[in-house]
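Reopening this one. Same input as before:
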Amino acid sequence: MTDLRFYSTKTAAEMLGVSLRTVQLWVENGRLPAWKTDGGHRRIPADAVDRMVADQRNQAAAPTATAARPFRVLLVEDDEHLLQIYRMALETLSPPVEILDATNGYDGLLLIGSSKPDLVVLDLIMPGIDGFRLCRTIDAQQEFAATRIVVVTSLDKHAIADRGGIPAHIRVFSKPIPMSVLQSLVMTLQVSPGATA
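Same output, byte for byte:
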């Protein structure tokens, strides 16, 4: 090993300009490697943090279409109570995200066309255009190639297959998705837009 330096989560958060909770979530989801001291404190290899800082600087220096606006998340869910929970979980993130929502697939499709979200989180069973059709429609359009899709559903994999399935690269989570998982997913995609959802 060429670099035996380590940072605390607090130091890493300060260096990366994010909240302590964001760093903790990155550690929990494997975005940042870490180990725990005998006292239970996380230590992150300095080279991993330094690489992230360099990546942030490179992204800031490079002109990109997304640099002018925050990361945009579209929530498509017909259960308005769940929509509110998702929104509350995502409103706490730092850096902040732009949150759009729709309670049916038709409105979701219109918002996708008009707002070009970075991430779409959707249910499969909805009135009008269902999530299956929405997934296939988004996936088939080249203009939405950069849009990541995540499905949150009460259907199991057999029920999904029986209804025609969805593209294999789309991640599926069972309802209810833990809010920490949703937050972690969004934060990972914010830092690495090319990452798999």
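So the earlier flakiness isn't reproducible anymore. For the record, Residues 6-61 form a domain with the Multidrug-efflux Transporter Regulator; Chain: A; Domain 2 fold (CATH 1.10.1660.10).
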